[in-house]
Amino acid sequence: MITIFGLKNCDTCKKAVKALQANTVAHEFVDIRTEADLADRVPVWLEAVGSKALINTRSTTWRGLDEAQRGRAETDPAALLVENPTLIKRPVIEAGSAVTVGWSDVIEQGLTSR
Questions:
Q1: In the structure, how many helices (H) and strands (E) does the chain have?
Q2: Which residues contact 114 (CB under 8 A, 6 or more apart)?
Q3: Domain containing 84: what range?
Q4: Entry pTM
Q5: In the prediction, which pLDDT does 110 show?
Q6: Which pLDDT value is given to residue 106?
């Protein structure tokens, strides 16, 4: 089963869920603000994709951080993301042991063709 971690109001997350539903792909949506165990999941995601892929440095949340907080992206990215879930690029998709970040035509083709 595919698990999509994101925000309910995120357009990209909605697009991913809609594509999976349209192709009758079994999936679960987990809201990263209210439902996800980020303390458990974030280290797994960082190991799989790295902080550059996982931290959204173009977000409003990122722009609101001071330099010391931004520096934690290098020194302690897991804690930074757990404290600020909206810094996580979305959606994070777990399909078995594979982890991907974002939704693109390539990912859509791979997941919906299962």
A1: 7, 4
A2: 25
A3: 22-112
A4: 0.91
A5: 77
A6: 59
Q: Which residues contact 87 (CB under 8 A, 6 or more apart)?
A: 55, 56, 59, 61, 62, 80, 81
Task: Tell me the average pLDDT across 102-111.
Answer: 76
Task: Collapse the DSSP code of 36 into the 3-class scheme (helix H, G, I; strand E, B; otherwise coil) and give the result.
Answer: coil
Domain holding 28: CATH number?
3.40.30.10
The number of distinct structural domains making up the chain is: 1
**10 included as an active-site residue:** yes
pLDDT over threshold 70, residue 82: yes
Q: Establish if 4 belongs to a structural domain.
A: no
C-alpha 68/C-alpha 71 separation (Å) is: 5
Residue in 10, 25, 48, 49 annotated catalytic: 10
In a domain, 3, yes or no: no
